[in-house]
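Q: Got a minute? One more chain.
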Amino acid sequence: MNPLSLIALLPVIEIILLIGMGSLFGFWFTLLWIIGTAAVGVYLLRRVRRAFQIGRPLDAVGQSTAADSLGIFATWVGAILLILPGPLTDLLGLVLVLPWLRKLTFGIWMAKNLHTIVTKRNARGQVYEGEIVDVHKEHRVIRQVDDDRDK
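A: Always. Here it is, folded:
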């Protein structure tokens, strides 16, 4: 299905889920859920803004990492999703906001899609074979050999 059609269907899905949530848990619980997740989202947006302001000077001196920036961006998107009313956007927002859940979800996605990523073809249809190498493992071995020479 086209991603744009999924985005167009999102409000309909959210309304159906909110009606189901209201009939299952009651109106007041559903209303508190919507207000509570929106408040958490606003709080997280303020924290992300502060983290971004702190991170800008670190970028200038090269102390910030791509993982830090990606985490801040994921939290920002997750906070916006928490502000939007609806259980589906709240679930997606929690996946992006909680670091351990984000890593778990990304790891599962990579395990399922790594083969398709590696075997992509270029525009001419040529396949390039490759090998995944653990760079960190080789670096440790090289360092260990160099340390043995010093002794």
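A: The chain has one domain: 3-150.
Q: Perfect, thanks.
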